[in-house]
Amino acid sequence: MIVVIGFPIGRITDSSVLAAGMCSRVALAAVRAGGIVQLVGKTGDDPTADAVVLDLARGGIGHAALLREPARVTPLESAPAEDIRPEPDLLPVPVTPPADAPDMDAADVDLGLRYLTDFGVVIVAEPVRPDVVAIVSEAARWAEARMVLVVAAGSSAPDGLPADVIVFEAPAADPDGVFADLVGSFAAALDDGVEPEEAFRVSIGSDGWTGVADD
Question: Potential cystine with 55: which of 19, 90, 91, 139 (Cβ 3.0-4.6 Å)?
Answer without folding.
Answer: 19
